[in-house]
Each structure stands twice: as structure tokens, then as C-alpha cells.
Write a structure and sequence with these properties.
Elements: E1 3-8, H1 16-23, E2 29-32, E3 41-45, E4 48-52, E5 65-68, E6 73-74, H2 76-90, E7 99-102, E8 106-107, H3 110-116, H4 129-137, H5 147-150, H6 154-170, H7 179-193, E9 197-198, H8 200-209, E10 214-217, H9 241-246, E11 255-263, E12 265-268, H10 283-291, E13 304-309, H11 310-320, E14 324-328, E15 338-347, E16 350-352, H12 359-363, E17 366-373, H13 380-393, H14 402-415, E18 419-423, E19 431-433
Parallel strand pairs: 1-10, 1-11, 2-5, 2-10, 5-7, 6-8, 7-9, 11-14, 13-15, 14-18
Antiparallel strand pairs: 3-4, 12-13, 15-16, 15-17, 18-19
The structure holds guanosine-5'-diphosphate (GDP), 6-O-phosphoryl inosine monophosphate (IMO) and magnesium ion.
Length: 448
């Protein structure tokens, strides 16, 4: 059986966690392939809300194996906190049993966090992501496979500690990293996670050969991709489909489906251009922020809000070739008189339909909108009722009023991608799947 990829189609926080959680019911592996704990993926099941940073979002199904893959940068201390929270909630300790850390993944150390804390340009999450990827690219970083070799090598430890201290001083951080604390940190990682560190690419490859379903869980989003996003206001990894298999340690031929997750509007955390941005103080931008509860899952920062941007979505489809689009948070738009979709930009008096390459040019783009009539706001229970009725009666999007169906059809036609699921609330059950589509399966358990 094949692998399916789930990717953020915008600037992150589109609802990837919820989509993975839904698909995991029918999958035996969920693999994170890039990023680290800059990600914050939310799963809501009944009264329980899980905020995951590194644990893959298939965790709620105990048949689902979990991989923190080759392409990731991993903070072991944050992972311990996440695993402790999971243990408190369920009594399970999945590490080394069904949760595995790739030998090839890079270790985020206190040095990386300190260095990232000095960022004043990008508005990073401060979790050490960029500095850890930089060490990897410079070929001086420590991977999980390397820890056992370095932990007793006093010379190597001392060289690392000196390098880190020197680099910190270049960004005005006067903290010294000493080799004995580096040694004890690395020893702790080995003691805590030794049994979970595995050649995970080999394991996932075997699963695929055995006919199992594998989910590849993206973090961040297409517009935050280091190569294809709004550079330099991006994250430090390749967030796109091309890296999904590579970062999981398998080949691209395994992938059959690639789902792009997009909000029915747009949000962005951190700095950088955002053509359809609205005011957070009034009007629809404030409505989206308040009703959508738009605060960063990782840092708690308020998310910037704006209308759906088709130029950005088409750009993201160019990179990723989505086989299906998941439109999330449609419910949040309820109660707005009119809805806008950006269908092009005006730049220097010219109409363009492709994103300019530089952030400077993108910052000068003004959105060109088409306007649609809005729909009334419903309570969460009413939305869930609509989703349940669609699921139970097999009516797909016919469960929606016409005005919503037309809005979805317009998104499909502007994006050139079929919409396969529409989110109408945070809960696992609060989605309406397209009839016969890849999200259309009978059960949506209310508990785990
Ligand atoms: P991710 O990083 O892509 O996994 O997304 P986040 O978890 O950071 O942010 C998405 C937020 O929207 C979370 O609080 C989700 O619980 C919530 N969410 C997801 N889908 C929907 C939806 O369809 N409607 C509403 N109202 N909230 C949703
Ligand atoms: P999920 O997976 C939204 C943003 C940061 C900053 C930029 C670089 O939950 O969608 P970094 O710490 O990665 O070096 O920061 O990227 N960013 C995210 N924005 N969702 C995320 O993850 C993000 N991860 C990073 O705000 O602008
Ligand atoms: Mg998030």
C-alpha cells in the first residue's frame, strides 16, 4: 500500500494535525519528515485537546507507529515533556515500542536555542531550528546516531563546546558551553531515548513493502519552505512533497496521495510579507482572529490574519502537486456578510497571477479580490450535526447549504484541485468529506 503526504499549503497552522489524526485511523505509520518543535499540531477529540510539537499526530491510535524521521531536528528535552504529558493522559509510554527516533535526525542542544534566541529579523519560534539545520549543512552537527561515539570522546566534546561558545559570542550571547555539560546532556539523551533510536527509513520501507499505509506528516507550510517560500521569512527546512519521502528515508515512488491543507482564510505567525493581511483590531481580520482563536500553538503569539490567497495557493500547488485539498476552519467565516478571495496581485500598476520571487516585491503587491456572499454563523454542535449527517447519510458536500457548496466549488475551480474535506470545527468529527473521496470513511470515533 502507498504513502500519503499531508502538507501545509500556506504559512503553517492550517490544521495538519487534525487531518493526520483523521487519516491515522486507517494507517499504521505516521512519520514526521522535517522541522522540529517549531511545529505545533493540534488534535481535538471530545473534551481532550492535544498540542503536539514533535510526536507525530497519529499518536491517538495505538495501532499507529510513530517516526521522528531523518529530516527532522529534535529537541530531546521537549520530546520528554511531550511524552510525559501523553503518559499522564493515557498511561502509555510509546518510546521504543511504537515511537522511534531516526538515527539520522539532528539533535537540538541548548546552544542552538540560545543562538536562535538572538534572531531579530525573521521572528523565529526561538526553538533552535535554524541553527541546528545550519550545523547539519556545515557538517558539524550531532545526529542521534553519533551520540554514542562522541559522548566519551573528550577531544571531540571540547572542540564542539569551544565552537558553540565562539558562535554564541558572535551574536552577543555571552554564555559559555562547557564540555562537561555537553557530555552530560548527550549521556542523558542516550539513557532516556537509546532504545528508541533506530534506522527508521529502513523500518518504514519494510512497512510499505508489506502493504501498510504510511502517512508523511508535514510541518510548517509551502510558503515557509526554505527554497520556495517567502525567503528569508521562512523556516530552515524543505517543507514540501519533494522532501516528504527523502526526509522519511524512502523513495518518492511510494506516494500516491498528497493532501494540501489550507484554511478558508489565511494566517501567518512571525515576520514577512502577507498580501491579503487584514487588521486584527477591527472587521473581518479581527473576526477571524477571535472566532478562529488564532494564537500560535508553539509560542502563543497572535497570528496575523487575512483572506484566502489563491496566488499563494496555486504557487504551493506548483511545488507540491496536491491530489486533494483539505479546506479547514470554514466555520470561522460564518457570520461575515461577504467573503473575499484573492485572485491576483497588482504590482507597480500591473496585474500578476504568479508570486514574485523576492519578499521586497511581494510586500509591494496589492490583492485583487472577488467577493462572495457570506453565510450565517452556526454553533459547533450545529456544524458537527451537519458533519455527522453527511457521514451517516453519505451525502458528501450536499449536506451544506448552497451558498457554502458554491464557495467550495469556486475554491476548487480557482485552485484546480478537488476539495476532499472541509473542516467545520476543531473536533476530529467536525469535518465534511467529499463523497467517495479519500476522507470518506464511516467511523469518526469520539474517543481514543
Ligand atoms: P497545524 O500546525 O497545521 O497542525 O495547525 P494548528 O494546530 O497549529 O492550528 C490549527 C488550529 O485550528 C488548531 O487550534 C485546531 O484545533 C483548529 N482547527 C483545525 N481545523 C479546524 C476547523 O475546521 N475549524 C475550527 N474552528 N478549528 C479548526
Ligand atoms: P506548524 O507545523 C506557523 C514560522 C515562524 C517564523 C518562521 C521561522 O505548526 O504549522 P523557525 O522557528 O522555524 O526558524 O521560524 O517560521 N513558523 C511557523 N509558523 N506554524 C508553524 O508550524 C511554524 N513553524 C515555524 O513563526 O516566522
Ligand atoms: Mg501549528
Amino acid at each position: 500500500m502507498p504513502a500519503s503526504v499531508v502538507l501545509g499549503a500556506q504559512w503553517g497552522d492550517e490544521g495538519k494535525g487534525k487531518a493526520i489524526d483523521q487519516l491515522a485511523e486507517q494507517s499504521t505509520w505516521a512519520v514526521r519528515f522535517q522541522g522540529g518543535n517549531n511545529a505545533g499540531h493540534t488534535i481535538v477529540v471530545g473534551d481532550t485537546t492535544l498540542k503536539l510539537h514533535q510526536i507525530p499526530s497519529g499518536v491517538t491510535y495505538d495501532h499507529c507507529n510513530l517516526v521522528l524521521g531523518d529530516g527532522m531536528v529534535i529537541d530531546p528535552w521537549v520530546l520528554e515533556e511531550e511524552l510525559d504529558r501523553w503518559h499522564e493522559l493515557t498511561g502509555e509510554r510509546p518510546e521504543g515500542v511504537r515511537l522511534f527516533i531516526s538515527e539520522r535526525a539532528s539533535v537540538i542542544l541548548p546552544f542552538h536555542r540560545l543562538y536562535d534566541g538572538a534572531d531579530k529579523v525573521v521572528g523565529t519560534t526561538g526553538r533552535g531550528i535554524g541553527p541546528t539545520y545550519r550545523d547539519r549543512t556545515e557538517r558539524v552537527g550531532i545526529r542521534f546516531a553519533d551520540i554514542a561515539g562522541i559522548v566519551d570522546d573528550e577531544q571531540a566534546l571540547s572542540a564542539q563546546a569551544q565552537r558553540m561558545t565562539k558562535q554564541l559570542s558572535t551574536v552577543g550571547v555571552e554564555e559559555a558551553i562547557d564540555s562537561s555539560s555537553l557530555k552530560s546532556d548527550l549521556q542523558w539523551i542516550l539513557d532516556r531515548f537509546g532504545t528508541a533510536i533506530k534506522p527508521t527509513g529502513v523500518m518504514v520501507d519494510i512497512a510499505l513493502r508489506n502493504g501498510e499505509n504510511v502517512l508523511l506528516e508535514g510541518a510548517q507550510g509551502a510558503m515557509l519552505d526554505i527554497d520556495q517560500g517567502t525567503y528569508p521569512f521562512v523556516t530552515s527546512s524543505v517543507t514540501s512533497r519533494a522532501n516528504a519521502t527523502h526526509g522519511a528515508g524512502i523513495h518518492p515512488g511510494h506516494v500516491e496521495e498528497c493532501f494540501g491543507i489550507t484554511k478558508a482564510y489565511t494566517t501567518r505567525v512571525g515576520n514577512g510579507p502577507f498580501p491579503t493581511e487584514l487588521s486584527l483590531e477591527e472587521g473581518p481580520g479581527q473576526h477571524m482572529a477571535q472566532i478562529g482563536n488564532e494564537y500560535g500553538t508553539t509560542t502563543g503569539r497572535p497570528r496575523r490574519t487575512g483572506w484566502l490567497d489563491m496566488v499563494a495557493l496555486r504557487e504551493s500547488n506548483r511545488i507540491n502537486g496536491y491530489t486533494g485539498l483539505v479546506v479547514t476552519k470554514l466555520d470561522v467565516l460564518g457570520g461575515l456578510d461577504e467573503l473575499k478571495i484573492c485572485v491576483g496581485y497588482e504590482m507597480d500598476g500591473k496585474t500578476i497571477h504568479v508570486m514574485p520571487t523576492t519578499s521586497e516585491d511581494l510586500a509591494r503587491c496589492k490583492p485583487i479580490y472577488e467577493t462572495h456572499v457570506g453565510f450565517p454563523s452556526l454553533s459547533l454542535d450545529e456544524w458537527i450535526e451537519m458533519a455527522d449527517s453527511s457521514r451517516n447519510e453519505g451525502t458528501g458536500f450536499d449536506a451544506f447549504p448552497d451558498v457554502i457548496k458554491q464557495y467550495i466549488e469556486r475554491i476548487e475551480s480557482l485552485a484546480g484541485i478537488p476539495v476532499v474535506s472541509v473542516g467545520v470545527g476543531p473536533d476530529r468529527r467536525a469535518s465534511v468529506a467529499s463523497k467517495g473521496g479519500p476522507f470518506d470513511f464511516p467511523s469518526a470515533e469520539a474517543t481514543f
